[in-house]
Amino acid sequence: MGTRYLPQELIRKKRDGHKLNDAEIAYIVSGICDLNFTDAQIGAFAMAVVLKGLDMDERVSLTKHMMNSGKVLKWDDLNLNGPVVDKHSSGGVGDKVSLMLAPIVAACGAYVPMISGRGLGHTGGTLDKLESIPGYNVMPSERLFRDTVSGVGCAIIGQTAQLAPADQRLYSIRDVTATIESVGLITASILSKKLAAGLDALVMDVKTGNGAFCKTREMAHEVGRSIVDVASGAGVPTRCLITDMNSVLGKNVGNSVEVLECIAFLTSPNKANPRLLKLTLELAAHMVQISGIESDLSAAYLKAEVALNSGMAAEIFEKMVRSLGGPGDILKNPLIHLTPPPIVQAIPANKSGYITGMDVREIGLSLVSLKAGRVKSSDTIDHSIGLSDVVQIGQYVSVGDPLAIAQVRNLNDIDFLKNELSQAINITEDMSSDVSESDIENGLIYDILTQNPS
Length: 454
Description:
Blueprint: H1 7-15, H2 22-34, H3 39-52, H4 56-67, E1 85-89, H5 97-107, E2 112-115, H6 126-130, H7 142-152, E3 154-157, H8 165-175, H9 183-196, E4 201-208, H10 217-233, E5 238-244, E6 253-254, H11 256-267, H12 274-290, H13 297-309, H14 312-323, H15 334-337, E7 343-348, E8 353-358, H16 360-372, E9 386-388, E10 396-397, E11 402-408, H17 411-424, E12 425-428, H18 437-442, E13 445-449
Parallel strand pairs: 1-4, 2-3, 4-5
Antiparallel strand pairs: 5-13, 6-9, 7-11, 8-10, 8-12, 9-11
């Protein structure tokens, strides 16, 4: 490696607010991979970064070295007849967009090699959702991954040992050391995976609100701007949408229940949750436009709508599931493969009124505590636990109407969720003056960030 450093001295340097140079960052990334850094030292480094930050040079350096810590995919040899494009979300509660988005964009003529992660903190992970499908292999061989992308049009998988292995270890430690909320680490984590996938273009969905890591729009802009600038600087055209996470996205929260919502969305889009539908199609349109399939955003949106409404996207989803080891009849017989737990029971509203807000983070954490997510990285998830038909902001409920349908293992869990949801969901007699109809319908995409002209 050349120069040797002491891990604790590099941690001390960042802790004291000094800038790390490229060689020092390269040494840290190498130490993460070859185990010269212990879990405790990686956690301490991550905490130092959370407290002191990384400037743009450090972010570029960390991203570059993490990307190059493993294999960087190339697609040229497959002679694909379309661009390679992907999307990443910063995470939220009920965010199952990737499961519908990848097939929609593939049906528009792009190729989507989506490298996804597991749940972080209170948010669900795309891989955890997909692993609720029996047989679905989230860690396929590189050959199967490439064959699925080229043959089907998309493949959603996890980080293999070959792709950005430094991030894989760092990511799992960040999850359990309260070091998720760092713009520099978020940027490097996302982009090391995405750039290692050999993309022509990238669209980012940075969520903001009480259910997001970026609680404020200011932080969301900082994360989005960092990602756009670092990725674009690395030669990958990137666009970022700042979107709302002050309410559950869609109707279901959990793993199996979110896959069921995805299947219903793809097979009956006319019945889809309006916010989930709008966001999915908007992201699809930006992916189709930025990758060059359509030059006009309106034409790209229409193309995505046709891909969804024609059933083409649903067909591609099923082909992807089959190609990666899952059942071939997931669309026709979802409940055979995604069986609910023993107790399925409504959580009633304890008063009448309008839903004027919700603590989305607390809803996510309540499900984590019931094993729908992880407290520590080694925890096993119960994929069948979840909430379906969660109420939406602006909706009116009467006493006893369901706030959600709980799918749990025992009656104690029902009592727990009654208490949690009654506190997490605001019900008021009148529509709050700060919750207007336009907010409910349109308060979804706050801003769109593009590369600054050089």
